[in-house]
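Field reference: "sequence" (input) and "structure" (output). Example, Oxidoreductase YcjS:
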Amino acid sequence: MAKRLKIGIIGSGGIAGAHVRAYKQMEDVEVAAVADIIPGKAEEFIARHELAGAQGFDDHHRLLELDLDGVSVCTPNVSHGATSIDALQAGKHVLVEKPMSVTLEQAVEMVQAAKRADRMLSVAFQPRYDPNMQAVRDIVRSGQLGNVYYVQTGGGRRRGMPQGTFISKELAGAGALADIGCYSLDMVLNALGYPKPITVSATTSNHFGTNPKYHPQANRFEVEDFGMAMIRFERDLVVNFKIGWAMHMDTLGPTLFLGTDAGLKVTPSGSGAWDGGITSIALYHDIAGHQTESPIPVKQHQVNIFYEKIRDFVSAVQEGRPAPIPGSEIIRNQAIIDGILRSSALKREVDIVIPEL
C-alpha cells in the first residue's frame, strides 16, 4: 500500500472546503493541520469538517514546522506566491489554487523556490481532468489540424460576479482574468503544448461591477469584470482571448483552432467560462475535395474533476512523479495575465519576457 500522506491546508475559505472534502475520500491521506490568519477560523474549519486530530493555527509558519508531506494553498490570490514559497522552503510539496500568482515576478520566484527545494509545485486546474477536455488536447496534439495559426478562446457569464475577496485589488490582484480567464488560457495552451508568448495588446473594464444596478458591492469593486487580448506567440501563432464575469450576451462563442489542414470548434456548456464542460466538438476538414464537418462524440461521464485533481497531486507525491500541472509550465499562463493587465493600463501592446529559469 502507498504511504499514507499527511497534508496541511493553508487558508480555510470556500475552496479549502472543496480540497478537504476530496482529501477525506482518500484512505491514504490525513489532513493533519489547517492554518488561517483569522484567529479561531482554522479550528472552526476543523470542527465543521470533522478532522479528528488535526491542529489549527493562525500562522501558516507554525503549520509548516510540522512533519507534513504536502500542503494545499487556498489563500487569497495575492498570498499564493509568498505562502507557496514558504511551504517549498520548509520542504513541503505544494498544490496551489489558481491563479498561480498575481504577477509574473511572483510566479518566477515560486518556480525558482521549487527547484531549489527539489519539491513539487503543482497548479490546481481541474478542467484538465475532464475527458472531453482531454479529447480536445489529443486532437490538437495529434497533428491532424496541421500548423495551428489562430485560436479564439474565452467566454464568461451573463451574470456571475463574485463578492468579498474576489473584488478586492489588494487581495485578489485581478478579477475575471484571474478567476476564470486562466482556465480558458490553460485549455488552449495545454492543447498546443504551452507555446511561448511574445507580445499582448489588451483592454479591461469593469462597467458592471462598479454599477450598483448589477453588483451589491459596487462601491468596493476594484478589479476588472471583462478583458480581451490579442496575444502573439512563437511559431506565428495568434490567440484572440476574451473573458467576462458579466455581459449583455448569452455567450462569447466557441473556442476555435484554425490549422492549415483542419479546424476544430469546441462549444462549451453554458456560457463558456471553461470551468465547466463541453457541449460539442466538431472537426472541419476537406475529404476528396469536399468541405466536411465531422462531429466528435462527446463523452457523457461522471468524473469528479476536482477530486481527480487532488488525487493526482497525492499520487504524484507518493510515487515521486513530477508535478501533474507544473508551475514551470503555468508560468506562461501567468505571464499572459500579467501582460494583459500591463497592456490595459498602458493602452498599448507590451512585450512578454519570461526569465530563463
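The first helix runs from residue 14 to 24.
The chain has two domains: 5-126+305-325, 128-303+335-351.
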